[in-house]
Amino acid sequence: MPFLHVGSTCRRRAVEESFPSSNSRRRYSTMDVGLTFISPSPAEERSEGAELAPRKRLLEVEDFSRLVHVGDPQVSPGGSRVALVAVRPDLEKNLYRNEIWIYELPAGKTLAVLQGEGDSQPRWSPDGEKLLFTSRRGLGEKEKGTALYVYHLGGEPRRVYQSRYGFVQARWMPDSSTILAVAPTPARSIDEDGDYVDIRGLPVWFDGAGFTEEYRSHILLVDYESGLHRRLTSGDFNVVYASPSPDGKRIAALVSRDQLRPHVTEVVLVDVETGETETLLSGSYSFSAVEWSPRGDALVLHGHALPRGLASHEHVWLLSLSGEPRCLTCSLDRNTAPYVSSDAAWPRGNIHPIWAGDGILFLVNDGGRVNIHRVDPGTGHLEQLTSGEQVVYSFTVSRDAGVIAYARTSYTEPGEIWILEPGRGQPRRLTRFNDWLLGEVELQKPVNLKARASDGTVVEGWYLPPARREPGNRYPVVLFIHGGPKACYGAAFNFMHQLVAAKGYYVVYCNPRGSDGYSEEYADIRCKYGTRDYQDIMEFLDAFLESVENADPGRMAMTGISYGGYMTNWIITQTNRFRAAISENGISDWRADFGTSDIGYWFDPDQICGTPWSSPENYERASPINYVDRVETPVLIIHSMEDYRCFIDQAVAFHVALRFHGKESRLVVFTRGSHGHSIRAKPRHRMKRYRIILDYLAEKLKQASPTTTSSTEESRAV
């Protein structure tokens, strides 16, 4: 295949760069390589590091154990209380300690703190007097199961019902005495000892859950007083979301029936008394949530009609019980889901639209900034309720929409819970779990950079300057690539980014084509992996290097996870510009991924286009393993053994191929951990991962850069 130079045109353009904390901007003309930018003056950069208070200490790996993860805020129906989940790493016992905090509003007084093992997913009863939550209290580490507990705002929580197979969803029915649960149930007889699994369909396994074929998710109704339950649905399908009608007589459910297209869902109504079902909507729709209107005459749906396959934006839809679905937010051309990369924005909680009062509240991801919006279901009028450089990653609303509780993070702030009363002043902060971080540790403020790519499209990104940089010194650069590909970087705190910057590196990251937060067309790179997305990343890097004089182009490394791991594998087969690469839980061979990934058999045909049998050329072209003979960059491959999203064979095969061709490759396999091991693995696992990465960067980038030729002359693309 021919080699193409990336960014070989030299032209005069302009791109925007600004500090999120400042309105000051300064425009410069500059000769660039296929990109344009506006750069802050040196004085502006220095002002970001000006000391107005005693110097704080630098961030260390050990600070991870002091970070409190805060999320899943649940405001009571009357708006007088808020429950939330706080998660603390425990290094000594190598586990996370979950806490459910309950606050009284508006004063923010703490009413109670629950501290049972695995306490999570608090949900208020409609009468506001009881709190339902899931927990693993009393269960051993290897013992399967999760239980439903109810807390009466006094005394001890009471266990109501336990499932060996856990719960997909748990919430109250309108009578405040019955619990609606969606739970996996055995589809047939299984081996209780776990000595074997009998697989007859798809998927074979699912990331974070293991082998899954012997289960189907169905609706259970549980009486909270007696603990007795009855199964409401059955059959060869999965209920993926369920919501009770205001009168409690029907349940709206999303059902997935096609194993080959599990993302395609039907909307059905289930009669609570008889269990009979009625299909309201079927066809090519992919919905992730359904809720009722307050009057019970319509449904709010969250999802899309697959106009661009899996690159489609999720939108808010309205479905009357006797009509066709109507999209209320399609005019936005932005995703209504908070898919912004962060290692500190969890536990998530609700991200779906909520109909409260006279409007439907939902989230909008605009350039990696996520805020709460409201739409009038009658007129379609849109209103933005929160604004700013932040990411709202979970929210709930009181019954009359008078109180909104939401979890938010920003560039230099880990997640906390905030309260907004629309029309009654500015949002106020409810929790301060991570004030120690803001008061004790020096964090770096990111610089926002917008660059115009060689085809004229603006690519947005950021960089963190290295901590305590000194005049006259040059600093190495670490390029981060997000997962997805339909995810994005944005106004969210990232512990890993801050940690690398604290060690003296420039941290650079951007949202290339394929990313979320922009138009649907921008997000659609189906059939084009490794082409325009690769160009955007490399051209953005050129813009950064042109903008920042003390960044050392001779000492650069790159890293990414999942799709970011794939792009890391791809880039080292296309250019030798980097001194080191760290590829995590990525893909090297799309043909193998089709057969081993839990989603490969339906995700890959949509993204790579076709199957390995119908379109083998697509799978061959986009697979980095086919170009390992070109690799000159030392690479560290990190993978987790229990990753069923990008299976371990991807890392092993790439390492073997590299070593067979005489290339420098190192493979580190964590023997436990799923695909999201960078944010969900046990605490000591995460600490070890941080140290391995930092040690590798120090080893490869510690030496001064040699004299290098033009960076663009060493880039190539297939």
TrEMBL record:
Record-level GO BP terms: proteolysis
Q: Does the keyword Transmembrane helix apply?
A: no
- All copies of the Peptidase S9 prolyl oligopeptidase catalytic domain together span 493-703
- Keyword Hydrolase assigned: yes
Keywords per UniProt: Hydrolase, Protease, Serine protease
Which Pfam families does the UniProt entry name for this protein?
Answer: PD40 (PF07676), Peptidase_S9 (PF00326)
Q: Name one GO molecular function term.
A: serine-type endopeptidase activity
State what protein this is by name: Peptidase S9 prolyl oligopeptidase catalytic domain-containing protein
Source organism per entry reads Pyrodictium delaneyi
